[in-house]
Amino acid sequence: MKPGARALGIAESFRGRTDAPDETRRSTVAGAVVRADRVVDGLGYRRCTVGGTDATDAVSELIDDVGRPDVRYVLIGATAPAWFNVLDFSAIERGSEQPVVSVTFEDSEGLEAGLEDAFSGAELEARLELYRRLPERRPVSVNDETVYVRSVGLEPGEAADVVRGFTPEGGRPEPIRVARQAARAADSYAESLVRAE
């Protein structure tokens, strides 16, 4: 990976009031443009509904807002952020015209059981249909750690190389790590403004 190659890392954070009405519970989605040599080269933000179905739109709008044609990859640190707000990686890839790589960090049996516990009827069916269309999740060894990768627009081996190329240490790719910190900081700040009112 060339040192100047850029990826847009995307992560989310929710630290809002758990007693707020469902329709007002919003998660902060952050995007961080990071070069392979760890230089941060841009930030952007959006919001999505906790437990909603708007995360794909929020990510797509964030990519448009950042507006960086020099970004070669979109790295997303989730499959269903903001409490089962399932992402459509194919739609994100089509809209951004960039390969999309999802990286998660825990081995699991998948989200179907959790979705079935949390939703029913049409809400469940819509999420299950989207979740079942996601590309296969594959384990990837990175710096003596294992992460789990799904990709659209790249072959699995290429996606693994991208993840390794943007992970200089540990198991979390730098663009996702920076985006996660940015999302947490922004979410914490937004919550402090609400408390101050």
TrEMBL record:
Coiled coil: none
One family name in Pfam for this protein: Endo_dU
Transmembrane annotation, as ranges: none
PANTHER family (UniProt xref): UPF0215 PROTEIN MJ1150
Similarity remark: Belongs to the UPF0215 family.
Cross-referenced HAMAP family: UPF0215 (MF_00582)
Protein name listed in UniProt: UPF0215 protein C492_03079
Organism of derivation: Natronococcus jeotgali DSM 18795
Lineage: Archaea, Methanobacteriati, Methanobacteriota, Stenosarchaea group, Halobacteria
